Amino acid sequence: MALPSLTVSSSTGQLTGQGLDGCYRDGRRVLSRCEVRTAGGELFPVQGRLIAADRAQFTGVIRRSGERGPDPEIRMERLRCADGTERITFHSSATRFIRLPVEIHLGTDLADLGAVAVGLPGPELRAAVHGSGLRWSGRGAHAVVTATPTPQDALASAGLLRWELDLPPGGRHTLELRPRLEHCAAGPGGDTSIPATRTGPARSRTRSERPPRSWSAARLECDDHRADALLAGSLDDLHGLLMRDPALPTDVFVAGGFPWRCGLAPVDALWAARMLLPLGTRLAAGTLCTLARTQQIAPGADFGRIPGPLRDAGPHAPPDCTGIEATLLFPTVLAEARRWGLPDHETERLLPAAERCLQWLRTATDPRGGDRGGYLPDPAPDGPYRCETQAHAHRAAVLGADLLDACGSLGADGLRDWAAELRARFRADFWLEDRTGGRPAALLTGDGRPVPHLGAGAAHLLDTGLVGGGTYAPGLLNALQTDQLSSLLRGPAMDSGWGLRGLGAKEGGYNPFGHRSGAVRVHETAVAAAGLAAAGRDAAAGALAKGLLDAAESFGHRLPEMFAGDQRTAGGVPVPHPAACRPAAVAAAGAVHILIALAGLRPDVPAGTVTVRPLGTAPLGAMQLTGLTLAEQPFAVRVSRLGMGMVEEAADGLQLRS
User: Are 62 and 74 in contact (CB under 8 A)?
Assistant: First the structure.
């Protein structure tokens, strides 16, 4: 994947036209079939692997009749890029000249990715010979495949290109395929056969045209080498998801994930930017600028709100609104980015949008008094009142007040007073006492009744955010309630052994494959682990981190967005959710977040300090993080097997606290 281009195939490398197989550009399937066949020989795939987020390599051998012994004489290697470009090389180990007939079967339906993803592709189109390849037309576009060298035969009716390759002893021969998409513009009389580009085909994005990495080249060297591979693979996936804002191409963000969210998903983009702040603030700045341009600025109840769709919230609650979460995350990300070293001019440029988000928060807070007064309904204006929404709102208010004070803006005192009142109300209204120590309610209904089920959304109550002096902001729970929630999250009902279930296994409606009712969501597990670490629950945080690392090994260090919440057993492996995005921004960024959280970094660049408080349990052994960025300068930290932290590289003048 190198958005807006991506290619999907099985490990054989053959594009069969089945399922999601195909080469896509701008959400359109340019090729659905690309099958290599050899006349007089059978092709056996032996290996397929990703060598980077945007490149894959496939190896096969060709068994020909008359060969002596078990050793194949011809090997085929396919190197494929995300834009569908392929170099297919045949290697001969024979001691004689070999003439090898090669056929490549091509086809496409030019279907939209969304239609293919839900199993509704279109019929395959009829090809026409075009230059040194084939061309298909339909649905307002043309797909063209150019072959090098020019095929010796092309059969349009079958979508077939043919070559007769002469392989000398120990020699090789390479074929190259380049697919491209041409959008059509309406010509005179509504004719749509005219390509929209003046200079011919629309170019696929090459590696040189890709957005540059918007974070530093972080590396991890750990006693548990699986962690090194997980960090590297996650950052590679995130690079494949990078996109430019068409309104201002210098601003970049990460798309939500393949196949369901290949464009801007505001909540996913903000969470990814926040979790990657230790690697620099450029992604956060680009993401915030992009979303600021979508913010509602017309007078009315939605003034200051960032748009976002509804999403399913499981069996116990109606859908929630991602736009509300994004609106509350915006000032949080800006405030924390400033702590990590976002330049003052960038902060000042984004401050008006953050102020509008905070103004919307105060406006949208339920004003009706009674037990629900002061709570934020989600979706507004009728609720319900979710515990995680109150956590997002409280964090936005506290960090937003800190930001307003630092920038000399008005309104900070009002936000702090509102947050203090919310804390007092929440601790009384949302906490349900029982003989085991109590639990937070998942939500209050519109008429104020608590819904007591325990889910992973409660982990957001531990995520309070960074304020000045390398400290964490106060949370909605008191110390005793925080201890109890930490115990509940680490209990067998919530912890599957691979990560945190979305809904406790003992709750009604639990389904290990329920994407909001029992499946393990990587993002929520990362939030829980980092929150437990910040609260000083080192053993619980380390156990969640190790469980997620064990799960990542089963997925080749490329975590899906979610996987089944079945209890871990000896010899068992986690099972991916069939609807999970992979790669997914929140999963890849969550993996980065949980690994860096083990080092316990708490920056305050405006005050010129950084606090390092790693987990005393050192769950992954000794670790060294290099290539981080703090105050726009390189930063490196080492953690010993005894849980002692030591800064090895930092900006001049940055004072270390422990």
Answer: yes
In a domain, 486, yes or no: yes
Residue 214 lies in a domain: no
Domain termination residue (choose one: 209, 237, 261) = 209
Residue type, 530: A
Structural tokens at position 103: 């056929």
Mean pLDDT of the chain: 91
Beta pairing partners, 144: 135, 180
153-178 in b/e form (b: 16+ CB < 10 A) is ebeeeebbbebebebeeeeebebebb
Q: Which contacts (CB < 8 Å, 24+ apart) does range 121-126 have? A: 121/29, 121/32, 124/17, 124/32, 124/33, 126/156, 126/157
Q: What is the pLDDT of residue 232?
A: 96
Instruction: Clarify whether residues 162 and 271 are in a common domain.
Output: no
Q: Whole domain around residue 590: which residue ranges?
A: 219-657
Same domain, 361 and 432: yes
Banded model confidence at residue 316, pLDDT cuts 50, 70, 90: confident
Distance of CA 217 to CAs 213, 629, 654, Å? 8, 9, 21
User: Is 141 inside any structural domain?
Assistant: yes
Q: In this structure, what DSSP letter does residue 497 have?
A: S
Residues 110-142: b if buried by 16+ CB within 10 A, e if exposed: bbbbeebbeeebbebbebeebeebbbbbbbebb
Q: Are residues 59 and 9 part of one domain?
A: yes
Looking at the fold, whether 224 and 179 belong to one and the same domain comes out as: no
Angstrom CA distances, 150 to 177, 206, 645, stand at 10, 23, 61
> Of 143-152, 298-307, 364-373, 411-420, which range is least confident?
364-373
| Residue 318 near residue 251, CB atoms below 8 Å | no
The rounded distance, in Å, linking the Cα atoms of 30 and 8 is 12
Clarify whether residues 224 and 197 are in a common domain.
no
Please report, for the domain that includes residue 642, its CATH number: 1.50.10.10
The residue type at 244: R
| For residues 476-488, average pLDDT | 96
Tell me the two tokens of residue 235: 């950052």
Tens-place pLDDT, residues 510-526: 999 998 999 999 999 99
Residue range 520-534: average pLDDT?
96
Q: Which residues pair with 6 in a beta bridge?
A: 24
User: Rounded CA gap, 35 and 58, in Å?
Assistant: 13
> How far is the C-alpha of 118 from the C-alpha of 517, rounded, in Å?
22
Residue 186 has pLDDT above 50, yes or no: no
Whether residues 280 and 170 fall in one domain: no
The predicted structure's pLDDT at residue 368: 53
- Domain stops at, among 150, 176, 209: 209
Number of domains within the chain: 2
